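INPUT
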Amino acid sequence: MKQFQVQKKQFVEGEVRALQSGHLREGEVTLKVDKFAYTANNVTYAVAGNMIGYWQFFPATSDRGVTEWGVIPVWGFADVIESSHKEIPVGDRLFGYFPPATHVVMRPAKVSEHQWLDSSEHRRCLPTAYNMYRRVANEPGYNRAFDNARMIFWPLHMTAFCIVDALEMHDWRGAEQIIILSASSKTSLGLAIGLHNMAEGPKAIGITSSKNLETTKDLGVYDELHTYDDLSGIDMSKPVVIVDMSGSISTVNKLIDSMGDQLKYVIQVGLTHWDQAGQKLNIEKGKSEFFFAPGHMQVRIKEWGGAEFNEKVSAYIQNSVAKISRWMSYEKVEGLDGLMAIHKDVCMGNIPANKGLVVEM
Ligand SMILES: NC(=O)c1ccc[n+]([C@@H]2O[C@H](COP(=O)([O-])OP(=O)(O)OC[C@H]3O[C@@H](n4cnc5c(N)ncnc54)[C@H](OP(=O)(O)O)[C@@H]3O)[C@@H](O)[C@H]2O)c1
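OUTPUT
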């Protein structure tokens, strides 16, 4: 068994470690990880590893202990290759949250035809959305041809769906335009597409780096696009909500300072520019929030029920992926050694915006 581990404090540095596998206990299953996506979202799991608890999902199992080394979770597919759980057969294929590792042991609970939860001791207090595994072979019409799109876009455009929904719930907070930072990220693109589809929705204005400007323009999902170093073209006289995927607080503060009363609200979602994180927003209390998609999901699942929630999210993601797929290409990364080779580039933002990395084991 092998696992890709990073230094928690220097997560740009990582290495593949060989680990000893133990005996399967009653009620456990061994999963062989098949493939997973790798985007800035995974880097953010490392940035916020201690703050939100992402290091707890898959403790780095090694002789070096779990204090200094951590495992960054990934979204992907795995197959059951060994089972001592009476309801889970060998061969079951799962979609969900995995370690970047060849294998992982889990303890299924609340098993139904379509899903189960990993009830391993160390995960019990972590959000349900991350502990849930879909039994994809039991889904009507499941097709492996869509695995890549699902791994990359399901967690990101689920978040986009939740942000649009949260904004709409609050009548867009009175905004006529939504400014989206780190506009070339896949989460932002999903949000811009969702805003475009709202008949009476606000305009989507993107802010991106000069190097990602043209590629992002090509997709054509923003009403306007600007770069971090030139915000002068933005109309500051209209009511605005800022959705920040970047964590570039200096840019957000520049916008806040220029907008005065027209700034209605700031939603902090991501940290793609993680090296600029840590400063404080120049904004009065009650006009900003940290957005955590699993929290919003839980609220809506309670209100709508799981089936209705899944239906709405699926429709949203099918539409957004259809728009993006003509623009994006998938790039195969070969196993954990391939992951180790590209990890630094993902951390430093060196992957072209229209590329989707898929690690195949
Ligand atoms: N709160 C939640 O529940 C939630 C859920 C899902 C995602 N998110 C967050 O949304 C963000 C976007 O994730 P994603 O997977 O969609 O990203 P992605 O598609 O991999 O985004 C890549 C883009 O991020 C920017 N970037 C990445 N690394 C950078 C670096 N080191 N320096 C400068 N720019 C960098 C660049 O965009 P620009 O040039 O346009 O800035 C780049 O084109 C992440 O922070 C993620 O954690 C949050």
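end of record. The pocket of NAP is lined by residues 39-41, 44, 155-156, 159, 182-187, 208-209, 212, 245-246, 269-273, 291-293, 348-349, 353 (CB under 6 Å).
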